[in-house]
Amino acid sequence: DWASLPILLLLVSLFSFFAFPITNGFSRYQEHQADVYGLEVIHGLVPNSQQVAAEAFQVLGEIDLADPSPSPFIKLWLYSHPPLSERLAFALSYDPWSKGQAPEFVKQ
Questions:
Q1: What are the backbone angles phi and psi of residue 43, rounded to the nearest 5°?
Q2: Which residues sit opposite 46 in a β-bridge?
Q3: Any long-range contacts for 58-63 (C-beta under 8 Å, 24+ apart)?
Q4: Which whole-number Å values give the CA distances from 94 to 42, 43, 44, 49, 79, in the listed order?
Q5: Other beta carbons less than 10 A from residue 81's beta carbon
Q6: pLDDT of 29-46, one tens digit each?
Q7: Helix 5-42 vs helix 84-93: angle between axes, to the nearest 10 degrees?
Q8: Using CB atoms within 10 A of its CB, is residue 14 exposed (0-12), middle (13-18) or buried (19+)?
Q9: Which parts of the chain fold into alpha helices (H)?
Q10: What is the pTM of this model?
């Protein structure tokens, strides 16, 4: 019945609204894994790869006019990528090679 269409659309809209944090969280996880992969791929190919990656994230953040440190609520609800501050800190600190650990994705 066409009369139930507005209620159905309202329910779908509410479901989508409340699913945002879940889908965005999964997307942030995938983007973080992509950052790990990227850092592992350029390690040894690009001199000072951690600094180069951090600078690339900084440039992307400036181009996108991204808030470098959003509130936890904004991050949870709206961000499908890790915030700039987290990406910079991770890029500068990720170095399993110096600790004798194996990289997660790129095996030697």
A1: -60, 125
A2: 43
A3: 58/84, 58/88, 61/87
A4: 12, 11, 14, 10, 22
A5: 20
A6: 999 999 999 999 999 999
A7: 30
A8: exposed
A9: 5-42, 49-64, 72-78, 84-93
A10: 0.86
Using a 10 angstrom Cβ sphere, with 0-12 exposed, 13-18 middle and 19 or more buried, the burial of residue 2 is: exposed
Give the pair of three-digit tokens for residue 51.
């600094």
According to DSSP, residue 26 is labeled H
Cβ proximity of 44 and 95 under 8 Å:
no
What is the C-alpha to C-alpha distance for residues 52 and 75, in angstroms, rounded to an integer? 25
Beta bridge mates, 73:
none
Q: What angle do CA 68, 69, 73 make, to 5 degrees?
A: 130
- pLDDT tens sequence across 56-88: 999 999 999 999 999 999 999 999 999 999 999
